[in-house]
Amino acid sequence: MQKRVGGAVRPLVGRETEKDALTRAITRLSEGEGGGLFLAGDPGIGKSRLLTDLTWRASMRGLTVVSGRSAEFERDLPFGVFVDALDDYLADLQPGELEALGRAHVAQLAAVFPSLADHAPAQDQESSSPSVRFRIYRAMRELLDVLAKDSSVVLALDDLHWADRASIELMEHLLRHPPRGRVLVAAAYRPRQLAPQLSNALLLANTQWHFEVVEVAPLTRAETAALLEIDSDDPRLAGLFEASRGNPFYAEALSEVATEARYLPGVFTEGSAPPAVLAALRSELYRLSDIVRRAAGAAAVLGDPFTPDLVAEVAELDVPTAVAALDELVRQDVVRVSAGGSQFGFRHPLVRSVTYQDTESVWRFAAHRRAAEALRARRSPVLLYAHHLERSAQPGDHDAAGVLADAARSVLSTAPDTAAGWLQTALRLLPIGGSHHAHRIEMLTSLATAFSAIGQTTRSRDLMHEVLDLLPKDSEQRLDIVLRLSKVERGLGRANEARALVVRELENAGEGNRSGRAGALLEIAIINLAEGDVPEACHWAEDALALSSGTDLVDRLNSAVAAAMIMATAPGRATPPLVDQVLAAVPAIDAASDEEIGRHFSLVVSAITTVMWVERIDDSVRHYTRAMNLARQSTHRDSIMAVILASAEAHSWQGALDESEAAAEDALEAAMLTDNEEQCLIAWTALSAVAMWRGDIEEALRFSRMALGGEDSATSGRSRAAGYYTAWALLVKGEPAEARRRMMAAIGDESMASVAVLMRPPVLEILVRIELALDDIDAAEAWARRIDPQVGEVLPGRWGMRHLAHAQVLLARNRVDEAAALAAEGARLCASVGMRLYEGRCRLVAGIALGELGKHDEARVEFGAAKDLFAARGAKRLHEDVVTAQRQLGAKMPRRRGGAAQDGLMALTAREREVAELISQGRTNKQVAEHLFVSPKTVEAHVSRIFNKLNVSSRSGLTAVVFAARSARD
Question: Is the pLDDT at 753 greater than 80, yes or no?
Answer without folding.
Answer: no
